[in-house]
Amino acid sequence: MNIRDLEYLVALSEHQHFRKAAEACFVSQPTLSGQIRKLETELGIALLERNSRRVLFTDAGLRLVSQARKVLTEVRVLKEMASEQGDSMSGPLHIGFIPTVGPYLLPCIVREIKYRFPDLELFLYEEQTHELVQRLEEGKIDCAVLASVRETSHLIELPLYNEPMWLAVPENHQWAEKQNVPMQQLSGQSLLMLADGHCLRDQAMGFCFAAGANDDTRFKATSLETVRNMVAAGNGMTLIPELAIPQSRRSSGVSYLMATDPVPSREISLAHRPGSPLRARYKKLAEVISECVKLTLSVSD
Fold it and tell me: Mean pLDDT over residues 163-181, rounded?
Protein backbone atom coordinates (compact mmCIF):
# COMPACT_ATOMS: atom_id res chain seq x y z
CA MET A 1 0.00 0.00 0.00
CA ASN A 2 1.23 3.50 -0.82
CA ILE A 3 -0.03 7.07 -0.71
CA ARG A 4 -1.05 6.98 -4.36
CA ASP A 5 -3.34 4.00 -3.70
CA LEU A 6 -5.11 5.99 -0.98
CA GLU A 7 -5.52 8.93 -3.37
CA TYR A 8 -7.14 6.62 -5.93
CA LEU A 9 -9.50 5.24 -3.28
CA VAL A 10 -10.57 8.68 -2.02
CA ALA A 11 -11.03 9.98 -5.57
CA LEU A 12 -13.29 7.03 -6.37
CA SER A 13 -15.39 7.71 -3.27
CA GLU A 14 -15.75 11.37 -4.25
CA HIS A 15 -16.54 10.93 -7.93
CA GLN A 16 -18.45 7.63 -7.68
CA HIS A 17 -17.23 6.84 -11.18
CA PHE A 18 -14.04 5.05 -12.28
CA ARG A 19 -13.38 7.19 -15.36
CA LYS A 20 -13.95 10.48 -13.55
CA ALA A 21 -11.82 9.37 -10.61
CA ALA A 22 -9.04 8.34 -13.01
CA GLU A 23 -9.19 11.71 -14.76
CA ALA A 24 -8.99 13.50 -11.42
CA CYS A 25 -5.87 11.50 -10.58
CA PHE A 26 -4.38 11.96 -14.07
CA VAL A 27 -4.15 8.23 -14.77
CA SER A 28 -5.95 5.83 -17.07
CA GLN A 29 -9.06 4.04 -15.90
CA PRO A 30 -7.41 0.59 -16.12
CA THR A 31 -4.54 1.87 -13.96
CA LEU A 32 -6.88 3.09 -11.24
CA SER A 33 -9.05 -0.04 -11.38
CA GLY A 34 -5.99 -2.26 -11.24
CA GLN A 35 -4.54 -0.47 -8.22
CA ILE A 36 -7.85 -0.73 -6.35
CA ARG A 37 -7.93 -4.48 -7.01
CA LYS A 38 -4.29 -4.76 -5.95
CA LEU A 39 -5.13 -2.95 -2.72
CA GLU A 40 -8.01 -5.34 -2.05
CA THR A 41 -5.69 -8.32 -2.60
CA GLU A 42 -3.04 -6.85 -0.31
CA LEU A 43 -5.56 -6.17 2.47
CA GLY A 44 -7.50 -9.38 1.94
CA ILE A 45 -10.87 -7.60 1.95
CA ALA A 46 -13.40 -6.42 -0.62
CA LEU A 47 -13.57 -2.64 -0.81
CA LEU A 48 -16.22 -2.48 -3.55
CA GLU A 49 -19.32 -4.45 -4.50
CA ARG A 50 -18.68 -5.89 -7.95
CA ASN A 51 -22.26 -6.84 -8.84
CA SER A 52 -23.53 -3.36 -9.54
CA ARG A 53 -23.11 -0.80 -12.31
CA ARG A 54 -22.77 1.84 -9.63
CA VAL A 55 -19.70 2.35 -7.46
CA LEU A 56 -20.75 0.90 -4.12
CA PHE A 57 -18.31 0.60 -1.24
CA THR A 58 -18.50 -2.18 1.31
CA ASP A 59 -18.51 -1.31 5.01
CA ALA A 60 -14.80 -2.10 5.12
CA GLY A 61 -14.26 0.11 2.09
CA LEU A 62 -16.08 3.04 3.69
CA ARG A 63 -13.98 2.71 6.85
CA LEU A 64 -10.80 2.64 4.80
CA VAL A 65 -11.86 5.72 2.82
CA SER A 66 -12.46 7.60 6.07
CA GLN A 67 -9.02 6.65 7.39
CA ALA A 68 -7.38 7.38 4.04
CA ARG A 69 -8.69 10.96 4.15
CA LYS A 70 -7.03 11.44 7.53
CA VAL A 71 -3.75 9.97 6.29
CA LEU A 72 -3.73 12.19 3.20
CA THR A 73 -4.38 15.26 5.35
CA GLU A 74 -1.39 14.37 7.55
CA VAL A 75 0.76 13.81 4.46
CA ARG A 76 -0.16 17.29 3.26
CA VAL A 77 0.85 18.74 6.65
CA LEU A 78 4.21 16.98 6.35
CA LYS A 79 4.71 18.48 2.90
CA GLU A 80 3.83 21.91 4.28
CA MET A 81 6.37 21.48 7.08
CA ALA A 82 9.03 20.52 4.54
CA SER A 83 8.27 23.49 2.31
CA GLU A 84 8.55 25.83 5.29
CA GLN A 85 12.25 25.02 5.50
CA GLY A 86 12.83 27.04 2.32
CA ASP A 87 11.43 30.36 1.19
CA SER A 88 7.98 30.50 2.83
CA MET A 89 6.59 32.55 -0.05
CA SER A 90 7.48 30.15 -2.85
CA GLY A 91 5.87 27.08 -4.35
CA PRO A 92 2.17 26.22 -4.79
CA LEU A 93 -0.58 27.82 -2.73
CA HIS A 94 -4.18 26.69 -3.14
CA ILE A 95 -6.68 29.41 -2.13
CA GLY A 96 -10.46 29.27 -2.07
CA PHE A 97 -12.86 32.21 -2.43
CA ILE A 98 -16.59 32.48 -1.87
CA PRO A 99 -18.53 33.61 -4.99
CA THR A 100 -19.50 36.99 -3.52
CA VAL A 101 -15.83 37.83 -2.86
CA GLY A 102 -13.70 36.16 -5.55
CA PRO A 103 -14.78 38.02 -8.72
CA TYR A 104 -14.44 41.41 -7.03
CA LEU A 105 -11.41 40.88 -4.80
CA LEU A 106 -9.13 38.99 -7.19
CA PRO A 107 -8.68 41.87 -9.67
CA CYS A 108 -7.52 44.02 -6.73
CA ILE A 109 -4.95 41.60 -5.34
CA VAL A 110 -3.57 39.14 -7.91
CA ARG A 111 -1.16 41.53 -9.62
CA GLU A 112 0.21 42.80 -6.29
CA ILE A 113 0.63 39.29 -4.89
CA LYS A 114 2.52 38.20 -7.99
CA TYR A 115 4.69 41.32 -7.76
CA ARG A 116 5.49 40.85 -4.07
CA PHE A 117 5.91 37.08 -4.21
CA PRO A 118 7.01 36.12 -7.73
CA ASP A 119 7.93 32.57 -6.67
CA LEU A 120 4.47 31.85 -5.29
CA GLU A 121 2.32 29.71 -7.58
CA LEU A 122 -1.36 30.47 -7.02
CA PHE A 123 -4.18 27.98 -7.57
CA LEU A 124 -7.61 29.60 -7.18
CA TYR A 125 -10.96 27.97 -6.39
CA GLU A 126 -14.46 29.46 -6.07
CA GLU A 127 -17.09 27.67 -3.99
CA GLN A 128 -19.62 28.35 -1.26
CA THR A 129 -18.51 28.53 2.36
CA HIS A 130 -19.48 25.00 3.41
CA GLU A 131 -17.64 23.53 0.41
CA LEU A 132 -14.49 25.56 1.12
CA VAL A 133 -14.55 24.54 4.78
CA GLN A 134 -14.80 20.89 3.74
CA ARG A 135 -11.90 21.32 1.29
CA LEU A 136 -9.82 22.90 4.05
CA GLU A 137 -10.59 20.09 6.47
CA GLU A 138 -9.66 17.49 3.83
CA GLY A 139 -6.42 19.29 2.95
CA LYS A 140 -7.48 19.97 -0.65
CA ILE A 141 -6.83 23.72 -0.31
CA ASP A 142 -4.42 25.60 1.94
CA CYS A 143 -6.54 28.58 2.93
CA ALA A 144 -9.75 30.39 2.02
CA VAL A 145 -10.96 33.96 1.81
CA LEU A 146 -14.49 34.04 3.18
CA ALA A 147 -16.92 35.86 5.43
CA SER A 148 -16.64 34.96 9.08
CA VAL A 149 -19.62 32.79 10.05
CA ARG A 150 -20.34 30.05 12.56
CA GLU A 151 -19.14 27.36 10.12
CA THR A 152 -15.61 28.81 10.24
CA SER A 153 -15.28 29.21 14.03
CA HIS A 154 -13.03 26.14 14.38
CA LEU A 155 -10.53 27.56 11.86
CA ILE A 156 -7.83 30.16 12.39
CA GLU A 157 -9.11 33.39 10.84
CA LEU A 158 -6.86 36.30 9.96
CA PRO A 159 -8.96 39.50 9.59
CA LEU A 160 -8.65 41.08 6.14
CA TYR A 161 -11.22 43.85 5.97
CA ASN A 162 -14.67 44.96 7.03
CA GLU A 163 -16.83 45.35 3.91
CA PRO A 164 -19.86 47.66 3.94
CA MET A 165 -22.96 46.76 1.95
CA TRP A 166 -24.66 49.39 -0.20
CA LEU A 167 -28.28 49.60 -1.18
CA ALA A 168 -28.83 49.02 -4.90
CA VAL A 169 -32.06 50.37 -6.42
CA PRO A 170 -33.30 50.79 -10.03
CA GLU A 171 -32.10 54.05 -11.60
CA ASN A 172 -35.71 55.29 -11.82
CA HIS A 173 -36.47 54.55 -8.16
CA GLN A 174 -37.64 57.41 -5.95
CA TRP A 175 -34.46 57.07 -3.88
CA ALA A 176 -32.11 56.93 -6.88
CA GLU A 177 -30.80 60.49 -6.40
CA LYS A 178 -30.07 60.10 -2.70
CA GLN A 179 -26.51 59.79 -1.37
CA ASN A 180 -27.49 57.56 1.53
CA VAL A 181 -30.51 55.81 3.05
CA PRO A 182 -30.96 55.02 6.78
CA MET A 183 -31.72 51.34 7.25
CA GLN A 184 -34.95 52.22 9.08
CA GLN A 185 -36.40 53.40 5.76
CA LEU A 186 -36.31 49.81 4.53
CA SER A 187 -39.06 48.89 6.97
CA GLY A 188 -41.84 47.13 5.08
CA GLN A 189 -39.70 46.69 1.94
CA SER A 190 -38.91 43.34 0.26
CA LEU A 191 -35.36 42.83 -0.99
CA LEU A 192 -34.01 40.53 -3.67
CA MET A 193 -31.62 38.00 -2.15
CA LEU A 194 -29.29 35.15 -3.03
CA ALA A 195 -30.47 31.59 -2.55
CA ASP A 196 -29.84 29.57 0.60
CA GLY A 197 -26.24 28.43 0.97
CA HIS A 198 -24.70 31.85 0.34
CA CYS A 199 -23.43 33.36 3.58
CA LEU A 200 -24.06 36.85 2.18
CA ARG A 201 -27.77 36.09 2.18
CA ASP A 202 -27.80 35.35 5.91
CA GLN A 203 -25.65 38.36 6.74
CA ALA A 204 -27.70 40.78 4.64
CA MET A 205 -30.99 39.41 5.92
CA GLY A 206 -29.83 39.94 9.50
CA PHE A 207 -29.60 43.68 8.87
CA CYS A 208 -32.82 43.72 6.84
CA PHE A 209 -34.85 41.92 9.48
CA ALA A 210 -33.53 44.29 12.14
CA ALA A 211 -34.73 47.21 9.99
CA GLY A 212 -38.17 45.67 9.46
CA ALA A 213 -37.55 44.52 5.88
CA ASN A 214 -37.81 41.00 4.48
CA ASP A 215 -36.72 39.00 1.44
CA ASP A 216 -38.70 38.72 -1.76
CA THR A 217 -39.71 35.05 -1.69
CA ARG A 218 -40.64 35.11 -5.38
CA PHE A 219 -36.97 35.25 -6.41
CA LYS A 220 -33.77 33.50 -5.34
CA ALA A 221 -30.53 33.99 -7.27
CA THR A 222 -27.43 31.85 -7.45
CA SER A 223 -25.10 34.78 -8.26
CA LEU A 224 -24.69 38.39 -7.23
CA GLU A 225 -24.72 39.45 -10.88
CA THR A 226 -28.15 37.91 -11.39
CA VAL A 227 -29.47 39.92 -8.43
CA ARG A 228 -27.88 43.08 -9.83
CA ASN A 229 -29.50 42.50 -13.24
CA MET A 230 -32.88 41.98 -11.61
CA VAL A 231 -32.51 45.34 -9.84
CA ALA A 232 -31.55 47.00 -13.13
CA ALA A 233 -34.70 45.54 -14.70
CA GLY A 234 -36.77 47.29 -12.05
CA ASN A 235 -37.73 44.17 -10.11
CA GLY A 236 -36.66 45.33 -6.67
CA MET A 237 -33.71 46.41 -4.53
CA THR A 238 -30.89 44.61 -2.73
CA LEU A 239 -27.75 45.01 -0.65
CA ILE A 240 -24.47 44.77 -2.57
CA PRO A 241 -20.98 44.38 -1.02
CA GLU A 242 -18.87 47.45 -1.70
CA LEU A 243 -16.15 45.70 -3.71
CA ALA A 244 -18.86 44.67 -6.19
CA ILE A 245 -19.94 48.28 -6.79
CA PRO A 246 -18.64 50.10 -9.92
CA GLN A 247 -16.76 53.37 -9.57
CA SER A 248 -19.79 55.28 -10.87
CA ARG A 249 -22.52 55.23 -8.24
CA ARG A 250 -25.02 55.10 -11.08
CA SER A 251 -24.28 52.44 -13.66
CA SER A 252 -26.08 50.03 -16.01
CA GLY A 253 -29.54 50.88 -14.73
CA VAL A 254 -28.66 50.69 -11.03
CA SER A 255 -28.13 53.43 -8.44
CA TYR A 256 -25.98 52.64 -5.41
CA LEU A 257 -26.75 54.37 -2.11
CA MET A 258 -24.78 54.19 1.12
CA ALA A 259 -26.85 52.41 3.77
CA THR A 260 -26.49 53.99 7.23
CA ASP A 261 -27.67 53.83 10.84
CA PRO A 262 -26.27 51.21 11.10
CA VAL A 263 -23.95 50.52 8.16
CA PRO A 264 -24.57 46.89 7.15
CA SER A 265 -21.26 45.11 6.73
CA ARG A 266 -19.46 41.78 6.89
CA GLU A 267 -16.06 40.65 8.13
CA ILE A 268 -13.85 39.03 5.49
CA SER A 269 -11.04 36.79 6.72
CA LEU A 270 -8.31 34.48 5.50
CA ALA A 271 -9.01 31.10 7.12
CA HIS A 272 -6.63 28.17 7.50
CA ARG A 273 -6.38 24.95 9.47
CA PRO A 274 -5.23 25.35 13.11
CA GLY A 275 -2.47 22.77 12.64
CA SER A 276 -0.96 24.22 9.47
CA PRO A 277 2.78 24.98 9.75
CA LEU A 278 2.48 27.70 7.10
CA ARG A 279 1.05 30.35 9.42
CA ALA A 280 3.79 32.85 8.55
CA ARG A 281 2.93 32.50 4.86
CA TYR A 282 -0.76 33.15 5.48
CA LYS A 283 0.02 36.16 7.65
CA LYS A 284 2.11 37.78 4.90
CA LEU A 285 -0.60 37.06 2.35
CA ALA A 286 -3.27 38.54 4.61
CA GLU A 287 -1.24 41.71 5.09
CA VAL A 288 -0.97 42.26 1.32
CA ILE A 289 -4.69 41.63 0.77
CA SER A 290 -5.60 44.07 3.54
CA GLU A 291 -3.33 46.76 2.07
CA CYS A 292 -4.85 46.38 -1.40
CA VAL A 293 -8.44 46.48 -0.18
CA LYS A 294 -7.95 49.56 2.00
CA LEU A 295 -7.11 51.50 -1.16
CA THR A 296 -10.46 50.49 -2.63
CA LEU A 297 -13.04 50.61 0.15
CA SER A 298 -14.46 54.02 1.02
CA VAL A 299 -15.41 53.08 4.60
CA SER A 300 -12.64 51.97 6.92
CA ASP A 301 -12.99 49.68 9.91
Answer: 94
Amino acid 99 reads P
**Residue 192 carries which DSSP code?**
E
Q: Could you report the per-residue pLDDT of 59-80, keeping only the tens digit for each?
A: 999 999 889 888 887 787 777 6
CA 275, CA 155: separation in Å to the nearest integer?
A: 9
On the 0-12 / 13-18 / 19+ scale of CB atoms within 10 A, 164 is buried
Cα–Cα distance list, 138 to 77, 127, 243 (Å):
11, 15, 30
Closest CA to 259 of 201, 190, 180, 151: 180
- Which residue segments constitute the domains of the chain, with CATH numbers given? 3-83 (1.10.10.10), 91-161+267-294 (3.40.190.10), 162-265 (3.40.190.10)
Provide the strand spans (E) within the chain.
91-97, 120-126, 143-147, 156-170, 180-182, 190-194, 214-221, 238-241, 250-251, 254-260, 265-272
Instruction: Tell me the CB-side half-sphere exposure of residue 192, using CA atoms within 13 A.
Output: 24
